[in-house]
Amino acid sequence: MTVAKTSKIPLLLLTGFLGSGKTTLLRNWLKSPEFRDAMVIVNELGEIGLDHHLLAGASETTVLLENGCACCTAAEGLTETLERLFWDRLHRKAPRFSWMLIETTGIADPRSILGNLRDSALVAERFEAVGVVTTFDAVEGMRLLPQFMEIRAQLAAASVIVITRADTATASEIEAARSTLAEVNRAAPLLLSAQGDLPAAAVLTALQATSSGARLIRPAEIGMSGEIEAHDRHTPGVSSDFLHLPGPVILDDLLQALRALHADWDRPLLRAKGLVRTANGLRTLQLSPGGAIEAGRPAPGGSADVESFGLTIITQGRPASRATEELAALLARPASEEAERQAPVRELVT
Questions:
Q1: What angle, 0 to 180 degrees and rounded to 10, lies between the N-to-C axes of helices 171-184 and 149-156?
Q2: What confidence score (pLDDT) does residue 221 get?
Q3: Those residues with Cβ within 8 angstroms of residue 187's Cβ, 6 or more apart along the chain or in another chain
Q4: Which entry of 210, 223, 322, 335 is 20 to 30 Å from 250 by CA?
């Protein structure tokens, strides 16, 4: 994508529902020449973030905005961060980045974020929103779409939609996703990605081909009226809690406990993710809405203190604090060797 010559810094918003593959895509994009000198802001819903650890080896300029969603409770924090980064860049306190990439939380409404950026005089003057890239899980997305208004909002605001998990989805699942997404947003090109392999160049080319770019969509354009109140931006009943695990933990015990928790909770358990310390070093863990567990190692170059070891749990319909209590109780039980042999965990390559 060739960005028009301007004094403004191009800003790209990466959004998508919980567990749909945003960070995996972003980690690979940051290794590309297109985004080699990008500044990254990662917004995390919980009080302790994980994604910046996953990005540590790919980018030396990652800023974490945690404990709130940038479309509502952390909106002021995002604009303040952008303003600070601009002045740091100008005064050479930060690298002279040529792109600003923002990874939203999984329940963000991009329309609200873009509106907030527009309302900040300095941000509107110095940054140019060039697109919204929305990820959509080919395996779980069709089940989740009717349940969560956030997914439809993310798709409606998209300049480009990336259908993820193309390597594990069936041909019929991909075709069903294509058909539905084309109805939700006719203007956005649909691209496929398997394990984050979609090149940044392909996304930028698709953005260039769209005429809308990151046009600030107003509520009336998608059947909404008036201002969107903060409490109306998210599906009711979504909550998060953090289970501190100073460690070291036995990884097999933790995996078994997560499987048991998901078996008990099923759909109300939307996400579990975090950084834990084991006898063999630090490990990252991520449980997606469908129950799939991914284990990996944090990217080289990152750092973490003991207070950040643990799991953030995100639920809907039942309090997340109850899930963390149950997970802690499960971890206190003796491990079952039979359970440890079940449900292999996907290892992430970082």
A1: 70
A2: 41
A3: 210, 211, 212
A4: 322
Q: Is residue 156 part of a domain?
A: yes
The angle, 0 to 180 degrees and rounded to 10, between the axes of the packed helices 320-331 and 251-265 is 140
Number of Cβ within a 10 Å radius of residue 187 = 12
Q: Residue 4 corresponds to which tokens in the numbers above? A: 């028009």
274 part of a folded domain: yes
Q: Write the single-letter amino acid at 24.
A: T
Could you give the C-alpha distances from 179 to 21, 143, 172, 198, 256, in angstroms and in order?
A: 20, 14, 10, 20, 37
Q: For residue 232, what pLDDT is reported? A: 52
- Contacts of 273 by beta carbon, 8 Å cutoff, 6+ apart: 50, 284, 285, 286, 287, 311, 312
Record the tokens describing residue 59, joined without a space. 């980018």
In this prediction, residue 350 carries a pLDDT of 36
Residue 46 is predicted with a pLDDT of 60
Round to the nearest angstrom and report the end-to-end CA distance of the chain.
Answer: 27
Instruction: Look at the chain and report how many structural domains it folds into.
Output: 2
Supply the pLDDT for residue 304.
60
Report yes or no: 123 and 117 within 8 Å, Cβ to Cβ. yes
CATH code, domain carrying 218:
3.40.50.300
Q: What are phi and psi of 6, to 5 degrees?
A: -160, 160
Task: Supply the CATH number for residue 292's domain.
Answer: 3.30.1220.10
